[in-house]
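Researcher: Here's the sequence for the chain we discussed earlier.
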Amino acid sequence: MEQPVNAASGNARKAHAAARVALFIPSFAGGGAERVFLRLAGLLIREGLAVDILVCRDDGEYRNIIPEGVRVINLGGGKPSRSVTALVRYLKQEQPRAILSTLTHANLAALAAVALSRERVRCVVRDAASPLDDLIHDTPTDRFLKKLLVPRLYRRAHAVLAPSIGVAEGIRQTYRLPENRIRVIYNPVDAAEIRHKCREKPQQADLLDPALPTLVAVGRLCYQKGYDLLLEACGRLKAEGRRFRLLILGEGELRAPLEARRTELGLEDEVLMPGFMDNPHAYIARSAGYISASRWEGLSNVLIEALCCGVPVAVSDCRYGQREILEEGAQGLLFNTGDVTSLSVAMSALLDGRVDPPDEQSLGRFAPATICRQYRQLLVE
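Model: Thanks. This is the structure I predict for it:
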């Protein structure tokens, strides 16, 4: 089992004798769940815990932002189902106080490994999105395995976490779990850190044209995020004679069909797709607003971060988290999910400056200190 160590610091050496916790993710791919766990790892390190991040593949867009003092352990195998044996070996050798996993396949592997190891380790699993949405888009095989295994194994967990009230209800309904097993803990977002990133110079400053009102969308290029809907709405805005720009910051499997549709609609000048950006906040802060057409979410990290940037936001009123984050629409504009007409009207409102910026006081719910305390209590206290 390969054990590369990421910049071990004095804090990490002091924490060696302290409670050790393991955070298990499939890889460092550029998704919201991975970002949450990296952020959480850094918070727990500062709390004096020893933190290991366990991965099945030691690669991904976030590999270069691992917090100092966190030990990275590559279990190998490529995916969670093939990493169970290595995970059992880790549990026996390191005997962590707790293991926390996220994403369903990793959760199942973690619970299986804990059972096989027979170690007294607290196992907490986290679903980033509601299974009501995930199961619809799963392959038949994945759907069968989840319905068969998840209810049985999740009952063995010390707790099942959800990032929003809506996701928690989806978990309860789908897997028939007792309510007292499900906990809601929001994602930690450091507003001060994001405001600092807002002041940094954008990587590609030429993407922003001062003469054009610009909207920014951020996230993986996948069906869930609704970029196909955004392109259709942009086509309508152009047909109305509007001058604008949309920046889509992200990478993913739908790049080719999205680029093809952009060409069909004649939007090469209006819609730019430069790919994944380490600091999307520098673009959001200089934009007319943040836009999201997601078909579903768990608790959108990027939406919370956009609020930290202080710009107006307009997002689909999808399941789950959007309405929860925006406090029923008090902090931004909600529009009908999957409705291109509603989306284009929302984009016009942003471009015209008719959406108020958010209230900074609303961000206290996501403060890192608050979220870290909740995780620490659950994992080691």
